[in-house]
Amino acid sequence: KPGKKGGAGMAAILKEEVQKLQENETALEEMVTAAFTGLFVERYRDRAEEVRASCLSALGRVMQLHPSMFLADTYLKYLGWSLSDMAAAVRAASLSQLSAVYTAHGAAEEICRVDGKPVSGAERLLNFTRRFESRFIEMTRDVDVKVAVEAIKFIDLLHDLDLLADKAQAVSEVVRVMRNNEPSQLKALVPLVNKQMEAGAAGPPSSGKRKGKKGAAGGAASQPIVQLASYAWDTAGGEAEKMPEVCLKMALAMSDKQPLLLDWTGYTDLLLGEALDDAAEHLQGALLYLMSAGAVFVNSIKEPATPRKKRALADQDERALALSAELGRSLTELLEKYGAQREALPALLGLVGQLRLRGAQAALKGPAFGSLLEQLEACFFKHNDATSIALCAGAWSELMQQPGAPTLEEQARARFRKLSSKLVAALKPLDAHTKKKPTAPFAFDEAAIAMSRLARLVTVQPQAAAAALKPIDGLGERLVAAVEARKEQRAPADGGLVACTTLLLQLETTVLCAAFSEVYDEPSEAVLEKRDDLLLLLGRALHAPSAAVARLAAALLAWLLQSTCSIEKGSGASEEAEEAEGGTPQESREALLTWFDAQLERAAAGELEEEEEVQEQEDGGKDDGLKVAVTSGPKWLSDVVKSGLAGGVSFAAAVRLLLVHLDHLPRDYKEFAKELWGHIAKVRPHELSDRQLGVLTLSFEEDEPAVFEAVAKQVAKLPAPAGAAAKGKAGEAAQATIEAGAAWALEPGHARDRARFVEGGLAPLLALCTAKGAALIARGELSDRFGGKSATLYPRWNRELRKVAGSERGRSKGLSAASPRQAASASRSRARARVVEEEEDEDE
Fold it and tell me: What is the pLDDT of residue 109?
């Protein structure tokens, strides 16, 4: 029976047991501390990052299992210090363990007791959190994306546990990470963005009423969208060009957790309400970009449905239908309100491209669709710059390619034809002016803007716009004549006139190529006649005094001939060329080269001019341009070469044939060759080098040795540099050609005829090199490959190299007075060099 004596005995026993347990606990703590100090403290700084990461993982686990001992600053500091480790894997391991520890014990009401009072997990973690909070925030901008994502999630956890010193400031700093525009980071940021928006961050009020919808207001629900748009604008760095990419990434990464990104009614209520009327224009544009990006997201191509994706795809289809319905109701008003804003135009017209007529038929019944087309047409006339005009034309293209709504499609096509006629009518003053004296003043700049609109619109549906161009037939010929008249008047070409000319040439070529693509097998006589007229016009424009007109005409002529089969019976082509019509592109190119070579041979033999005179007499003296065999002088040659030889023949192939016959051709052909080569030489040394090497290698593979050497000689003569700058450029090009040509010659497949290529093709180019360039070649690898023991195989190479490199040494020596002994030595060296050269000449 318990009594006083028994109770006292039990208390003593219990006290003894407690004392033993405390002693055991102390001993265990000492053992753990010794193990921690002897093992962890040494190995958490190991050279191997895997060992360091394993140490941190072990520390995190024991913190979760025994928080009363390990959840203390004594141990937490090691995880904090490891946040600055050089290895991303170690930083990620530290963050991962901290997240696990905070999740397990951050909200615990009691971790241990101190002086009999319970201590919560937040109290144990608060000091450590304050110490390393700045580092946590800094890690959200870590160079490693995975580490940055873990840091963002950890900040969100600290926010939920109420452990941040200043929540608003911390979230504001972390949200700036959106500027990285990394999808995984954007996805991780969604909870923090939501928290900031819920906290009532700055944004324009949305209490105004929406225009056109009685009683509808933007409402408070639309305010967070403004903040999202502001985030997007900051992420893009205030550059409108980056907004489409930034907003699309936001939609892809954040739409699942942030439904406001796909709230179409919220967008339109806010954009069409009065709340944003006083807001900055860039913010209005940012909202449109965000809405457009969301539209692209929901209308994107869907993958085949699987059991897991069926629900998600069904939701996406539902959102796409809701988008089309809302755009059908609101797009007309959006175009009217924001169509004049250049910054917002890409996003606004992007919404036109995302409109699906099938899903918007109910909203576009009656006059609604007509009003939409009217506003789209008005938008076309509000902008004059080329980029905006191209965007408007693209919107028309997207709208007319929509399937599933035939009535609306036909209505769009009818409006398109009407717009084309209106643009052509705007060119009637220009057409009337070109029929008068060319000296009359005229505002070509306004006509150029109208022409640019028409040229862009024609690319949408060339055949639909072709009928509207009939009122301005012949305008292209008169514009080219006006450009030519400027030269006769010795007046500078008007920029607006040049723009009108180039745009109209491009427009007519586009329409004609589209006509051929539709009826290529059996083109009508009218189409063929139009093609012949345009070929003549482009050939004439090649010689216009305006370089811009000539360059464009050359490109358009190559495109037109390539697209409409340039080799026609009766065009002066040979029988072989005519037989190649309808064959493969390679056959067509070979036949055209054969014809070109035949024409050059006849010109060299003096037969071509006589045939021209006969042809002109038969035609009554009328110059039919490309319809006769050739035109007077080298014009036909210019037409063929500048247009890329019609079927994509390389420049090297054309010039090779020209150089083969150049010695025997009339003077004007030689002048043309120099002019052509000089035009290329003016651009860049490396481009001239590419041309030179292409001609040399092609001639080496195609021609006999004597022909190849003649071509190489012409290549070395053609640059004809005048002035120090031109000589330096020619020398730089020659040096690059020699180095690239030597590499080509040293390939194993060219070993047999290597000496012939180096001696006949590269050695003549050494004369063009600067002394410094020749000296570099003489000291380089080529000197070992073509000199020394191999010098007997390359006598001309070594002779030319010594000449050019020696001139530099001679000049440098001439700068200082030489002693008699040095002069005698130099004289003996020159005598020996002359003997060697004579012996080499005899050997050669």
Answer: 80
Query: Which residue, 291, 276, 283, 415, is CA-closest to 348?
Result: 291
What is the rounded distance in angstroms from the CA atom of residue 515 to the CA atom of residue 296? Answer: 33
Residues 6+ apart with CB under 8 A from 458: 420, 465, 469, 507, 510, 511
pLDDT digits (tens, 9 = 90+) for 608-656: 443 333 333 333 333 332 222 223 345 555 555 544 444 445 667 777 7
Q: What is the pLDDT of residues 531-569, one digit of tens each?
A: 778 877 877 776 777 777 876 776 676 566 656 544 333
Pick the closest to residue 593 from 702, 714, 711 (CA basis). Answer: 702
CB atoms within 10 A of CB 629: 17
Distance CA 60, CA 380 (A): 64
* Predicted confidence (pLDDT) per residue in 80-128, tens digit: 999 999 999 999 999 999 999 999 888 888 887 776 688 888 888 889 9
Residues 6+ apart with CB under 8 A from 661: 600, 601, 603, 604
The C-alpha atoms of residue 126 and residue 76 are separated, in whole angstroms, by: 11
Which residues, other chains included, contact 108 with Cβ-Cβ below 8 Å and sequence gap of 6+? 67, 120, 121
Secondary structure of residue 606 in the 3-state scheme: coil
d(CA 763, CA 34): 82
DSSP class per residue in 6-44: HHHHHHHHHHHHHHHHHHHHHHHHHHHHHHIIIIIHHHT
State the DSSP code for 176. G
Count CB-CB contacts under 10 A for residue 224: 22
Q: Is residue 177 within 8 Å of residue 185, measured between CB atoms?
A: yes
Alpha helices in 720-787 (DSSP H): 724-745, 754-757, 771-779, 781-786
The type of residue at 622 is K
CA angle 836, 840, 841 (to 5 degrees): 120
Question: On the CB side of 559, how many CA atoms lie within 13 Å of its CA?
Answer: 19
User: What is the Cα–Cα distance from 647 to 654, expressed in whole angstroms?
Assistant: 12
CA dihedral defined by 158, 162, 168, 172, rounded to 10 degrees?
0
Instruction: Quote the CA–CA distance of 338 and 284 in Å, as a whole number.
Output: 9
How crowded is the C-beta side of 285, counted as CA atoms within 13 Å? 21
Is 452 within 8 Å of 498 (Cβ atoms)? no
Residue 789 scores a pLDDT above 80 = no
Q: Residue 28 has which token pair?
A: 């265990």
The three-class DSSP label of residue 210 is strand
What is the per-residue pLDDT across 697-728, written as a single tens digit (0 to 9) for each?
Answer: 878 877 777 778 878 877 777 665 566 666 77
Q: Which of 608, 570, 563 is nearest to 588 (CA)?
A: 563
Instruction: State the pLDDT at residue 95.
Output: 94
Phi, psi at residue 30, to the nearest 5°?
-65, -40
pTM above 0.70, yes or no: no
* pLDDT for res 93: 93
**DSSP string for 255-307:** TTT-GGGG-HHHHHHHHHBSTTTTS-HHHHHHHHHHHHHHHHHHTSPPPPP-T
Q: Which of 500, 514, 492, 504 is CA-nearest to residue 538?
A: 504
Question: How far is 267 from 409, CA to CA, in rounded Å?
Answer: 27
Distance of alpha carbon 414 from alpha carbon 396, whole angstroms: 12
Rounded to 5°, the CA angle 37-40-41 comes to: 55
